[in-house]
Amino acid sequence: MIKFRQTCIAAAALAISAGSAYAADAIGIPACDDFLTKYDACISAKVPAEQQAQTKAPLDGMRAQWKAAAANPQSKTALETGCKQMADAVKQQTAALSCTW
Question: Would the pTM count as exceeding 0.90?
């Protein structure tokens, strides 16, 4: 579980530093899907169009990790908690953009 959290934190740091998100494929965990949808909406509304693809790209790796974790019953509960924590962190990071969460 510690390794999983470290992986999520590393992916989150990359995503936050790039200011990215994107809500294509559902994870199947409401907290994760909600986070991805809202983050994508924030980026789509607040980041210039020519920078959006680059800004959203790092979340592909996070989404793949989350999907794999969601398929594992042992990590599913931790994933929901991790997504909620990620949403709280990103809300603070995107406050300057005036995104709606």
Answer: no
